[in-house]
């Protein structure tokens, strides 16, 4: 490459990162969400109380052991008082390491550096919005770092020790990391089989180490759920067609959105083509005796195929954006496999516009994620304002067995200075209104609460300056609530609440009172 080509390539590599950062600046909400309510929050509380143990760090979370993500998250939490923005920064760094690892594979295998902008577009794709909005996805990115490091480490003098360590980190970061052992064996076997002495012995030791690691992983794991029988196998047995369609659509996930047909169908069509090209490319490489130089990309592709099968077993359902980085790695491995076969220009020319269109089509998902994460942020901020025990279930996504205990864990963070609740009331009215009315089961109040062009994160109801209830606006800002019986016969004041500034703005009342029953908002 000439100096000018290097500069242009570097500039094109930066563009997807800038695009992603702009979206994060607009839509990112700094709050814990989803599994962090039932996993990370208790871990932080146990640490502050001095009761955190290694078994808790390495405990099964669903089907996953998240030892290394827990250590990273705990370390960041200690250093930053669990400011989740640093988890996002860690994810961006890990994504950068994934890109760097792919660059090292290119350097080692003689790949074309001009394809790096496509790599950056797929790795930093906004279509994978779930991975960027949720700090808990560090577990995915850590696995991806290990999977992309194994191929180039397998070509160094530390190949056995290095790949073993990477496989352990991957395995105890997420269930998908277990496939790393198969990747390592695929990469090391061609070298070991020609070395009748030390090479085969080291490979046998690696296999033994992998077996021990896997057995430790599955210690205490059960394929059965209490009173429900096997977890996932019946889905595969009774719905084989759906399982196969999901398996195929997994590979087309980064390119499935923005078309007239639904994303599952488009993903299945695209995924079938990509998988077919990979199989054909691998066979062609073997016939042309190019398999040794293509092996890093073939091994990476095989690893993603195994992850797709594993995900089909455990997560059969619609496409989810969180799996896009894995599927992106498959397209990347296929792209460089075809490049070694002198077919490089074909795939990138097709994939780039599909990836861009799919990413643009995810803007409504970013909007909705901001709304949902804002609800979670409100519950964390207002836990000391009103009793949120019952309403927590509507925003945590995961099942809370003991909501009161969860609230206690949030207060533990507050007691140790890791959380500083602050609520202020502003005199400047918000855009919207409040209106009294009747409900079939009591007095009600409804209205609309907007903060600029966005719905308020919550509506706080107060009497004589004391909050007594919180309502949740819909995406269009409309809200309603039932006034608790037995309260003083005083007109409550409604406030549009901004979680970003922790400030409430008054909502003006409409003069008339509704006599008809207020319909519940969706």
Helix/sheet category: alpha+beta
Globular, elongated, flat, extended or rod-shaped: what is the shape?
Answer: globular
Main sheet characteristics: 5 strands, mixed
Number of strands: 13
C-alpha Rg, in Å?
26 Å
**How many helices in DSSP terms?**
19
Report helical residue fraction.
40-55%
Report strand order across the widest sheet: 5-13-12-9-10
Given as residue ranges, the uncertain stretches (5+ residues, pLDDT < 50) are 225-230, 515-522
What's the end-to-end separation, in Å?
Answer: 57 Å
Mean pLDDT: 86
Overall domain count: 2
Beta fraction:
5-15%
Describe the structure.
The chain is of the alpha+beta class and 522 residues long. It is 55% helix and 11% strand. It folds into 2 domains: 31-218 and 233-365, no CATH class; 424-506. The strands form 4 sheets. A 5-stranded mixed beta sheet has the order 5-13-12-9-10, with no helix packed on it. Strands 6, 7, 8 and 11 form a 4-stranded antiparallel beta sheet that branches. It starts with a helix and ends in a 16-residue tail after the last strand.
Secondary structure layout:
Layout: H1 3-27, H2 40-49, H3 54-57, E1 60-61, E2 64-65, H4 67-80, H5 85-109, H6 116-123, H7 129-133, H8 138-153, H9 159-171, H10 180-192, H11 198-217, E3 224-225, E4 229-230, H12 233-238, H13 240-252, H14 263-287, H15 291-315, H16 324-340, H17 346-360, H18 363-381, H19 403-415, E5 424-425, E6 431-439, E7 442-451, E8 454-455, E9 458-463, E10 466-471, E11 478-482, E12 493-498, E13 503-506
Parallel strand pairs: 5-13
Antiparallel strand pairs: 1-2, 3-4, 6-7, 7-8, 7-11, 9-10, 9-12, 12-13
Helix pairs in contact: 1-6, 2-19, 5-6, 5-8, 6-16, 8-9, 8-10, 8-15, 9-10, 9-11, 10-11, 10-15, 13-14, 13-15, 14-15, 14-16, 15-16
